[in-house]
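Sequence only, no structure available. Ideas?
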Amino acid sequence: MTGNEGQPGGWLLRGAHRTLTGLHPALESVLAAVVGLLVGAVLMYIWGYDPWRAYWALLRGAYGGSYEIASSIARGVPLVLTALTFAICLRGGMFNIGAEGQMYVGAAAAVCVAYFQLPSWLHVVAGVLFAAVAGAIWSLGPALLKLTRGVHEVISTIMFNWISRFLVFYLVAYVLVDPRQAQRTVRVPLSARFPILVPGTDLSYAVFMAVAFALFAYVLLWHTAVGYEVRAAGLTPTAARYGGISVKRTMLLSFILGGVAAGLAGAATTMGLPPTYAIISGLPELMNLGFDGMAVAMVGRNHPIGILVAALFFGGLNAGGRVMQFYGSNPVPLEMVRVVMGAIVLAMAIPELARVFPALAASGRALVRMLSRKKPVEEAA
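Reply:
I predicted one. Tokens follow.
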């Protein structure tokens, strides 16, 4: 099954390809990037910085050589997976912002393989499976609250993010702690790490895991009957039910797949970096990767292939942004770098935000209704 044409009720998905400007999505994204770059240039010029020199430094730091390209790709690997967490659920009609928490749990589960003695290839597989299963299990909480009690996923995933954060704090401090360095976990052994792909860089074979899962998500969502049901239920739940699609089943599947992706992001971080790496008690290595993935998903139009390109772009921004702070006689300070990066990302995300705005509005109304359920009772009292 290769598309929507042969599907009964294929009209459900025809509105999914509309864009804000009427241009092809890829061309529209390029146009949005140009606008974002121009806005960033104007901001830097107003505050007395040379935008063209700064952008040249950004380009060199991101893609100026094999080391720079490898660093950009390495920074984009976990973003691919956390972006897929958000995108898969959005295609199913839900706003799962729990990638951060699911990634924490997956990272902690991947560290657990340090306590096992296994052959090298099996050690890596065990770590990946531990992380994927942990992320999927953590996603079941918000999923079951949504399906059984009608709890809005935005509220439940935020709550579960905080729960997982402090749970991992506890594990780092009392369970997985390195007896020689109390602020760190035990290090993942070499036999359980992804081999480094480009010597002297942070780029490991974890990149193939991220690309493989993105391709799996693409084939599942766009070339199988199950994926068609997920997208149809996400676009028009009432019509999907009328067509015989189980909306609850598609919701549960979306949450589980998203949890697997976030768990793999945790594995890519803990098992994919050089051997000196271990989770520090403050989780600085993992913080905000889940939320950054939401921006990557929006820039990539919530499409797995677009997410791969957007993650490479984001990785380049992160790698090149550091060079902007030290390049030339008048380097751009960190605060301005973040403002410029924010302007670029916002400009590129606007077209997708406009496309999904009806779904955002509907989700917001559902959230308001849920929060105001007790109001009549309170007024009667």
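The longest strand covers residues 181-185.
Hope that gets you unstuck.
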